[in-house]
Amino acid sequence: MHRTGRLGTYAISLGQEAVSVGIASAMREDDVLLPSYRDNGALLWRGVALEEILLFWGGDERGNQFSGPVHDFPFCVPVGSQAPHAAGVAYALKLRKEPRVAVCMFGDGATSKGDVYEAMNFAGVHKLPLVFVATNNQWAISVPLRLQTGSETLAQKAIGAGFSGEQVDGSDVVAMRAAAEEAIATARDGKGPHFIEAVTYRLGDHTTSDDALRYRSAEEVQAHWKEEPIARLRSYLVGQKMWTKADEERLAAECHERIEAAVERYLKTPPRRAETMFDNLYADLPEAYAAQRRELAGEDDA
Ligand SMILES: Cc1ncc(C[n+]2csc(CCOP(=O)(O)OP(=O)(O)O)c2C)c(N)n1
Ligand SMILES: [Mg+2]
Prior knowledge:
Bound molecules: thiamine diphosphate, magnesium ion
CATH architecture of the largest domain: 3-Layer(aba) Sandwich
Structural class: alpha/beta
Distance between the termini: 40 Å
Strand order of the largest sheet: 1-2-3-7-6
């Protein structure tokens, strides 16, 4: 869709499905999710519609009016800026004495941002009900993890902020779910934040606008396909005699149908009127913008 001009771009989550679903499935409805742009699986689990995700990447802000819980935050495209927001959310939950938890998701690259350190520090000081989830997919666009940090793990960064951190196999949905359940329950009990480093691999390009073969080898990517989370879950379930080829085919057909229907709904959505770009920016639109808005709306008498 991107290559045919029907989508601006798209952040591919291939290889990271277990992180998204393991985390989101451990949350309660009234917990608050602060996702990054790549956490599509978490959004879908929270009830966001496929066509809303398409609308967002099609450049239409209405895509951010998620069908998921209204208190969840939209995709965060600025790297790491959702972390201070998460600290603020968790601080509010604590002040209001609400038994709710904020869950903040970001990438390995984001852990180099001051925003993330500041949020972690604040969360540690105030023992906030906040779970940080760093999806370590080994790459930040073309920057490999070894150029991102001199630290042996990302998880150990939590120690400096005064709370616990752990590395979890981010390609194992059962392990992710277990770690998330424990961290969220601990935070809900008032015992403070926790940091989960989900160790995984970005099997796809950074986005549909990227060509990762320019900076990493096909062999490296190929080697990581053996950890691919959906294949791992499938082989586990087949081994437990809980999943068959027929189940797989039925599910694939259903997914295909749902995606096609969502694409159709997205493509049929009439574009927003140009003047709406000024909406929701200010309580009272400054006159300079108000004039431009009127002009675009064809309300200008000039
Ligand atoms: C503040 C900011 N700086 C730079 C960018 C450009 N940018 C987009 S994604 C990205 C890399 C982020 O890597 P990581 O945090 O590992 O997340 P991943 O893309 O691997 O999910 C960068 C530098 C941005 N979106 N925001
Ligand atoms: Mg990354």
